[in-house]
From TrEMBL:
Keywords: Endoplasmic reticulum, Glycoprotein, Glycosyltransferase, Membrane, Repeat, Transferase, Transmembrane, Transmembrane helix. Signal peptide: none annotated. This is Dolichyl-phosphate-mannose--protein mannosyltransferase. It comes from Suillus fuscotomentosus. Residues 1-24 are annotated as: Disordered. Transfers mannose from Dol-P-mannose to Ser or Thr residues on proteins. It holds the Pfam family PMT_4TMC. GO terms for molecular function: dolichyl-phosphate-mannose-protein mannosyltransferase activity. The lineage of its organism: Eukaryota, Fungi, Dikarya, Basidiomycota, Agaricomycotina. It catalyses: a di-trans,poly-cis-dolichyl beta-D-mannosyl phosphate + L-seryl-[protein] = 3-O-(alpha-D-mannosyl)-L-seryl-[protein] + a di-trans,poly-cis-dolichyl phosphate + H(+); a di-trans,poly-cis-dolichyl beta-D-mannosyl phosphate + L-threonyl-[protein] = 3-O-(alpha-D-mannosyl)-L-threonyl-[protein] + a di-trans,poly-cis-dolichyl phosphate + H(+). The chain crosses the membrane at residues 105-125, 137-159, 166-185, 191-209, 221-240, 246-263, 283-304, 598-619, 640-658, 670-693, 714-733. It is found in: Endoplasmic reticulum membrane. It is a multi-pass membrane protein. Belongs to the glycosyltransferase 39 family.
Length: 769
């Protein structure tokens, strides 16, 4: 890298006040012109004009709209995860409650778009390949939303590079990597969340760059505006998809670095000044985003007021807030001597018993009690009937006969007239857990072993036990084990039914049961017959919000099952594998999500070059050598370093996750790597940078300016690269748009890597000589 041909002398400027300055910042401002802007090449001067920049971004955006809206009506069938996100949009229109691991913002936008274009919400998006045309679904209007956001992302990428101080041609280079990327285009043409996520992530980066450029105009209206905008767009990113939280983390780290710099005593700031900055950022980047994030869920709950597919995920108290919910309609208070059936919440088996007994000896040699078998049974049966027996004196009538939280009860098995019992005998399948059996009701010798505490989950001391809506744990009095079951089946001697045993953790979350049916009751209302409409109950918004957040985290972490197109993070930057989104056998059409290999591998090379440059610079400076000019080094550390941070935070955490992962999880990081690639290209092509770029303030220490000059090299290199990028995009376009259909030989030709699992490939035959 060539060093500046002129000596760099700092000119001291005495500020008019000592209220604090940024003397140590690399991006400080101009006192004397170090390099005249007119000394640059004529082409550079033309491209650097506002008119040329506006024309460039206009052309790029127009191309983006053309590529993303091209044949957006094809295929006219449900594609990949449209089965989920299209369905969720329909639920907003029908107002039926659903559950998903992702926050609701992007899905609310889809629901609003669907309503706006006339979708009635009754198409259910059940299967990939279901026809939109046959069912009169205005799917093009719904797909237009991500297409618009994906197209505007190109404009934002360009603007980020310009605001960060790069020349027009470099900004166009980074924008083109996203513009002609097959993966970004495929995601932007379907009812999927990633286009919304990437768009608002890019707006977050842009807003933060604008905020940082105003650091010499702290606490002004414009400074506050861009700070609040950063927080707002950050909340939208987080609200679009659960991994948007990584954008929050990336901005958070950048803010901590910023605050650490302000805390430096060499800057001359007081602690009062530091705390003002701290509180401003806390308001703009914590309080405001959290309020916006909460508002998404407030709207979500306000719209979804009817019972739907997501009811069963939620607590009984939550479910009873939904119109038409089964728990709300059928729940009734239980009284002593009622006969009921009980189901395990997770496995949905009934608590069951029958006259058969445990064998004397199990296969592993352990001895049983030979008591009556107590099992879990998956079907309705009279052997599932149990009567609630009191252990205390009861009034003749009235509410004193209602069973309540923390009551001690017995359960009588109706068919065999025996009481449920557990004791210190190992269960058939789990030697560490206790056996459950029964005992004749008239034999009181083991009375204490038949006593169980009724622990209703999230209940207060006097809360009644209700059918359907009261989740409970049954905890044995003497031994404090909770009645529990698991999915493993017992042997033939128990008819391969499910084992019921005593878990030694009395608060085990999976030891949760509920009363499914009331078979007979002495309640004045009797058994539920014709249902009288009931008003939904109310619980606080924050209780709903907290419950849903916890479930979202648990279920997201639980997505660990295998998938044929899942892939590990190490594969993503290199495009080792993609995802089959959709196929049509007759015409041999397919949509295969894969990026533009030219653009993605260029970004990988740029990342490697950047790490090498910064490592070499650190080593050289350790030996007193300054190989890179101050302004160029500052740009590499500050702007390119910020892009590297965004890339790393959106990529590296996936290595720690055990859930299903797919290549589309890399798209935010790919955008960041495109920004970094532009930074690296600018460093390679120009000895100088556009410097400084921040807005000068009253107390700014002024420094000499310089301007990037790529000459003819920049347009030629970027032009050739873009042409190659475009050719690769066109070559892979049939896999992106799903049309036209391809014969087997053509499919083989488009499989650039052997690891790509494309459909309809021709079988390769070996030649026989």
């Amino acid at each position: 890298m060539a060093s500046p041909s002129r000596p760099r002398q700092r000119i001291k400027v005495t500020p008019a006040s000592t209220a604090g300055n940024y003397d140590q910042d690399d991006d400080d401002h101009v006192h004397a012109i170090y390099q005249s802007p007119n000394s640059r090449s004529a082409l550079e001067r033309v491209l650097d004009t506002p008119q040329a920049s506006a024309a460039m971004v206009g052309v790029l955006t127009a191309i983006a709209f053309a590529l993303r809206f091209y044949k957006i009506n094809q295929p006219d069938q449900v594609v990949f995860d449209e089965v989920h996100f299209g369905k969720f949009a329909s639920f907003y229109i029908t107002r039926e409650y659903y559950f998903d691991v992702h926050p609701p913002f992007a899905k609310l936008l889809f629901g609003l778009t669907g309503w706006f274009v006339g979708f009635d919400g009754h198409f259910t998006f059940e299967n990939i390949g279901d026809s939109y045309t046959d069912n009169h679904v205005p799917y093009v209007g719904m797909r237009a939303l991500p297409a618009i956001l994906g197209s505007l992302t190109i404009s934002v990428v360009y603007a980020i590079m310009k605001e960060t101080g790069y020349s027009t041609i470099i900004a166009a280079f980074s924008a083109c990597i996203i513009l002609f990327d097959n993966a970004h285009i495929a995601q932007s043409r379907l009812i999927l969340l990633d286009a919304t996520l990437v768009f608002f992530m890019s707006l977050t980066i842009y807003s933060y760059v604008r905020f940082r450029k105003l650091r010499y105009w702290e606490f002004t209206v414009e400074w506050w505006s861009w700070l609040i905008a950063t927080g707002f767009f950050m909340a939208c990113t987080w609200g679009a998809k659960v991994n948007g939280i990584l954008t929050v983390a990336a901005i958070g780290i950048a803010v901590l670095v910023d605050l650490w710099d302000i805390l430096d005593h060499k800057k001359g700031f007081t602690m009062e000044h530091f705390w003002k900055h701290f509180m401003a950022r806390a308001v703009g980047l914590i309080v405001v985003p959290f309020i916006i994030y909460l508002s998404f869920f407030y709207v979500h709950f306000a719209v979804l007021t009817r019972s739907g597919t997501g009811d069963s995920f939620m607590s009984p108290a939550f479910q009873e807030t939904l119109i038409g919910n089964e728990l709300l309609m059928n729940s009734q208070e239980l009284r002593y001597f009622d006969v009921v059936t009980m189901k395990h919440k997770d496995t949905k088996v009934y608590l069951h018993s029958h006259p058969d007994h445990y064998p004397l000896q199990y296969d592993d040699g352990r001895i049983s009690s030979q008591g009556q078998q107590v099992t879990g049974y998956g079907h309705d049966d009279t052997n599932n009937h149990w009567q609630i027996i009191p252990t205390k004196a009861l009034p003749e009538a009235g509410r004193g006969r209602i069973v309540r939280h923390d009551d001690v009860i017995q359960l009588l098995h109706i068919s065999t007239q025996t009481l449920l019992l557990t004791h210190d005998v190992a269960s058939p399948l789990m030697p560490t857990n206790q056996e459950f059996t029964t005992w004749p009701k008239d034999d009181h010798s083991r009375h204490n072993d038949t006593l169980f505490y009724l622990n209703i989950i999230d209940a207060d001391s006097e809360d009644p036990w209700k059918s359907k809506s009261s989740y409970f744990r049954l905890v044995h009095g003497p031994t404090r084990v909770s009645m529990w079951t698991h999915s493993k089946q017992l042997p033939e001697w128990a008819f391969k039914q499910q084992e019921i045993n005593g878990n030694k953790n009395p608060t085990e979350k999976s030891a949760t049961w509920f009363v499914d049916q009331v078979i007979s009751t002495e309640s004045p209302e009797g058994l539920s017959g014709e249902q009288v409409p009931k008003e939904p109950k109310k619980i606080s918004f924050f209780r709903k919000f907290a419950e849903l957040q916890l479930l979202m985290l648990q279920h997201n972490a639980g997505l660990t099952s295998s998938h044929p197109y899942a892939s590990g993070p190490i594969n993503w930057p290199f495009l080792i594998s993609g995802i089959s989104f959709w196929t049509e056998n007759d015409a041999q059409k397919q949509i295969y999500l894969i990026g533009n290999i030219v653009g993605w591998w260029t970004c990988v090379i740029a990342l490697s070059i950047y790490v090498g440059i910064m490592g070499a610079d650190l080593l050289a400076r350790r030996r007193g050598i300054e190989p890179i000019p101050d302004a160029a080094r500052g740009r590499l550390w500050n702007s390119a370093g910020f892009f590297l941070l965004i890339w790393a935070i959106h990529y590296l955490p996936f290595f720690l996750m055990s859930r299903q992962l797919f290549i589309h999880h890399y798209l935010p990081s790919h955008l960041a790597s495109a920004l970094l690639a532009g930074s690296v290209l600018s460093f390679i092509l120009s000895d100088t940078v556009n410097y400084p770029i921040s807005i000068v303030g009253r107390w700014t220490k002024l420094r000499k300016s310089e301007y990037a000059d790529l000459g003819m090299k920049g347009p030629v290199v970027v032009g050739v690269f873009t042409f190659i990028l475009f050719l690769m995009f066109v070559y892979m376009a049939p896999l992106t748009y799903g049309t036209p259909g391809l014969d087997g030989e053509t499919v083989n030709a488009k499989r650039l890597l052997s690891s790509w699992t494309l459909h309809f490939a021709a079988k390769e035959t070996a030649e026989v000589s």
